[in-house]
Every structure is written in structure tokens, then in C-alpha cells.
Amino acid sequence: MQYFESTEAEKTLADAGRAMMDFSEFFPNLGKCTDEGLRVLNLLSHVGHKLTTVGVPFGATIKSFSDDEMKLISDFAKKQVDIEQKR
């Protein structure tokens, strides 16, 4: 019998994915977000979920992420995600 354990890198990606989903879920003032801001929050949830599946059977691989998604991950890690809001 074989046992499969996630690597440290996969666990780090999953933690980042959960942080992205939490950021989107608990973002304050959703009523003030523009359509573009809501699009970014939805994308954070989508990409965050994909990150949590890296390394699991039938899950995402690094090649599964588009350039835009990779940029979003990078911006989120640097805390540079801009959520557009109405004034």
C-alpha cells in the first residue's frame, strides 16, 4: 500500500489559495464594488480554488494557470491586488 503526502510546496500553494478565497469572501463594502472589482474578487475565488487542488489526483497543475492567473497570484502575494470601487 502506498501513502501519498502533499509536498511542502503544494501545501504552501494550498494555503495561498485559501487566503485568496478568504480575501474574496470577506471583502468589506461589496456594495461599493464596480463590475470590474467584482470580477477580480470572483477571479480570486476561482484561482484560489485551483491552487488548493495542485498536487491532488485530477487537480490543477502549474501549466493549468494562464498568464493572467499567474499575474493575479503574484500580485496577491505582493498585496498589490486592486479592487475597483465606486466613489
Short description:
This protein has 87 residues and is mainly alpha-helical. The chain contains three helices and no strands.
Explain what this protein looks like in three dimensions.
- Helix content is 54%, strand content 0%.
- The chain has 87 residues and is an all-alpha fold.
- The protein has one domain.
- Helix 1 (8-25) runs antiparallel to helix 2 (35-52).
- The radius of gyration is 15 Å and the shape is elongated.
Secondary structure: elements and pairs:
Blueprint: H1 8-25, H2 35-52, H3 67-77
List keywords for this structure.
87 residues; mainly alpha; 3 helices; 54% helix; 0% strand
The averaged pLDDT comes out at 94
How would you describe the shape?
A: elongated
How many beta-strand runs?
0
Order of helices and strands: HHH
State the low-pLDDT regions, or none: none
Cα distance, first to last residue?
59 Å
Biggest sheet descriptor: none
Radius of gyration: 15 Å
Strand content: under 5%
**Domain module tally:** 1
The helix-and-strand class reads mainly alpha
Helix content bin? 40-55%
